[in-house]
């Protein structure tokens, strides 16, 4: 498969695929004499894993870990699950932080008279 074909199958852009190659997240494909990349089923599977993992919020390094686990004949499902649970914990921490930020911003907004005056209690509070 050429880069355009595999990109269409996976739902990625050729630029993304070249980026994954450059960062060594994806093994470099065989190059034909004309310089075109020739992708295999293994590339297709790896790209599907990357795409899905990225879609659910995994970073490039986390994708690297998942790919390593996927390729390892010695992997244990508990190792894969541990990776997922770590991601869930990180997301939970981010949700908690964003909830706190939202509460603070809501409190600031509630203090604002929302009128034509130049004094702004929001800015005053942010300057503390």
Automatic annotation (TrEMBL):
This is HTH-type transcriptional regulator CueR. It comes from Thorsellia anophelis DSM 18579. SMART domains: HTH_MERR. The keyword DNA-binding applies. The keyword DNA-binding applies. It comes from the Bacteria. Homodimer. Pfam families: MerR_1 (PF13411). InterPro entries: DNA-bd_dom_put_sf, MerR-type_HTH_dom, MerR_fam. One of its GO terms (molecular function) is DNA binding. Keywords: Activator, Copper, DNA-binding. PANTHER family: HTH-TYPE TRANSCRIPTIONAL REGULATOR CUER (PTHR30204:SF16), REDOX-CYCLING DRUG-SENSING TRANSCRIPTIONAL ACTIVATOR SOXR (PTHR30204). Residues 1-69 form the HTH merR-type domain.
